[in-house]
Amino acid sequence: MTKNVWGGRFSQEPDALVNLFNASISFDRQLYAYDIEGSVAHCRMLAKQGIISDEDASSMLVALGEIKRELDHGGLSENDDYEDIHTLVEKSLVEKVGSLGEKIHTGRSRNDQVALDTRLYVRDVVQEVMTSIQACQKAIVSLAESNLTVLMPGYTHLQRAQPVLLSHHLMAYYEMLKRDYVRFEESLSRVNVMPLGSAALAGATFDLDREMVANELGFDRISRNSMDAVSDRDFVLDFLYNASVLMMHLSRLSEELVLWSSQEFGFLVISDAFSTGSSIMPQKKNPDLPELIRGKTGRAYGNLMGLLTTMKGLPLAYNKDMQEDKEALFDSAQTVLMCLRVMGSLLGEVSFRSDTLKAATEKGYLVATDLADYLVGKGITFREAHEIVGKMVVLAIEGNRELHELSLEEMKAYNRQIDKDVYAWLDPQLTVGRRNIPGGTGPDAVKNEIEAAKRLLRTEEG
């Protein structure tokens, strides 16, 4: 029996190289459960519509269940010479029930079949990614909560800027992941469209109940244009884009873990269990895990750009080029899920050096803005205050001192309204405490955000 589902038009068997180059079974095998799920729903609908008999449908449904169990347990693995997973399932069905199995393809094409399988896969993997994002968010929130009073320098341009709470810095990554979660969640509505019944491109001639199939497979609606349905890969691009943005966020966090664990920063320690060593330098302890997450971000970007480039010049409707979506999709899904799992575990193995972090807030004139705000409170315009403080910073630099080390007399030389109460504005702990507005780095504000995050995560789980 031929292992292709086409060939009547051809007078020659395809060259072995053609079969090898054309085949997708090596990677689309992982769609088998979705292919069988779609075939089951299609079979039931054909029977309900009287296109096949109930008896024929029953026989095929039993056989499809057997094929599913065999594939679940690694069976049929020797059949890599089939063109794709759809052919493998169909031919396996024929082997079990004879020519009756060839009726399963009535009213459908591999074009709408692969679109269906891919949508079912993306729908599941999106939900898996969302669950993994939540696990990573929990790790961030837990780390923030356990370091609620720890001060650190906030940075712009990688230069020390203003004192912030470490927990506030960490919660910025929670916010990034929250946007990622929403982005994936919103994409589900575009994924959850049932294309089966579009056939090759023009729709089927049979009286198919597409709504029945959509309901059975949990789709929100059916596709409205058969040509678009078989050639649409926007939902895959959505996933690849969302995965790329998520990986960018994980990469930024990874970059900081790498920097902060260096001797130059010394802000944190990653446990030995989540670090690696050097094959030649006995003293080395390397942050390989965040480095790998940072590196794998390029793979996600490449997958997105690859499929965008593939799709940009394709005329309607289906083209074989679209087979290139699967490896990109599968790779990005696997990469994102593993990186989220690793990052969530890694964050539980990080210990911060609170004394080093606090000491870093006391060098570099991080309270300069607060000193300007102090002067504004005395009735000076902010631009004038900015100028005055800039000159005071120059004086401090020349004397190798910090602002709080300037004498009251020295400061008064720049503005007579400065009084001894100024020193309360030059204490990093107190400057942080003054920023308790919503979204600020004040302890109360940050604690409120942590509690809100915990409530939201509980709601999303429920």
Describe the structure.
There is one protein chain. The chain is mainly α and 462 residues long. It folds into 3 domains: 16-106, Fumarase C, Chain B, domain 1 (Orthogonal Bundle), CATH 1.10.275.10; 111-153 and 166-198 and 224-356, Up-down Bundle (Fumarase C, Chain A, domain 2); 363-461, Ribonucleotide Reductase Protein R1, domain 1, CATH 1.10.40.30. The protein is 60% helix and 5% strand. The protein contains 18 helices and 6 strands. The strands form 3 sheets. A two-stranded antiparallel ribbon has the order 1-2. β3, α8 and β4 form a beta-alpha-beta unit. α3 packs across α6 and α6 (110-146) runs parallel beside α12. The longest helix has 37 residues, at 110-146. The two termini are 51 Å apart. The model has no long low-confidence stretch (mean pLDDT 95).
